[in-house]
Amino acid sequence: MLLQVFLLCLGFVMLVKGSDWFVDGAANLAKKLGIPELIVGLTIVAMGTSMPEAAVSITSALKKNAGITIGNVVGSNILNILIILGITAVITKVPIQKSTLVYEIPYMLAITMVLIVLGLTGGVIGFSEGIILWGLFLAFMIYLFVSAKKGRQDKEERSECSISYIKCVLMILAGGGIVVAGSDIAVDAASYIASQLGMSQRLIGLTIVAFGTSLPELVTSVSAARKGNADIAIGNIVGSNIFNILFIIGTTALICNVPFESRFLIDTGVAVYAGVLLWLGTVRKRELRFPCGIVMLLSYAAYTVYLMV
What we know:
Oligomer: single chain
Largest sheet: 2 strands, antiparallel
Distance between the termini: 26 Å
Shape: globular
Radius of gyration: 18 Å
CATH superfamily: NCX, central ion-binding region
CATH class: Mainly Alpha
């Protein structure tokens, strides 16, 4: 048990250091290329911090154990908003771009509803549903490409950055690798400790594993917000949630059928609630503030109580 506690602490240290490199590399690369930080957050950072969820879900599918996929993704998406953005909002005010309120958050809510509909038709996400999810993923990528191109046109002059392109890329790759490795160590240690304490597999999947695979998003978003890269902080979470549903579940469904049990309806409903709360809490001031952060954290506490009952 002591060894597992040590490994858990080691995993956290790796996550913090790795996220610092990852955020710095991504932010500097955005400056050099003249790409808006929001786009970087929605793409490079979002996909990078979603690697643990992708690894867990796709590996499980290859081992013919895709049942963990929905719980992992939905649990992570709930935690991403209620815990990660909740903690970030308690630490500092987080400005939100108009495009995030008008396009990205509504799109995240829409695809979560699509997941519910697909799950209700037969109780599984099959190959055809996987194609639908991948189609929606490609549509989102096209939207981001157009947004990035427009962002470069709007911002004619690029910010000066003393760090070279190669160093930026190396920081992103090294930071991402350390984040994923740290997450893997932390998840394994936390799962072992939880199982020794008698927690059920469903509770472990929706909380410990979801929290562990969401640790990259947590440390990356808090680090980005504290460094003044708020667009990366918000884009990271929204982009990760979209990526989790469309790419991870979509790819897993192309490999094998993904079971969608009836009990996941409540969990997916909570994911929708979290997205609505984020939108309502930011639409007036275009800022995620302390009060909304507290409501998010209390909401997750209530959800945790539900899981334990």
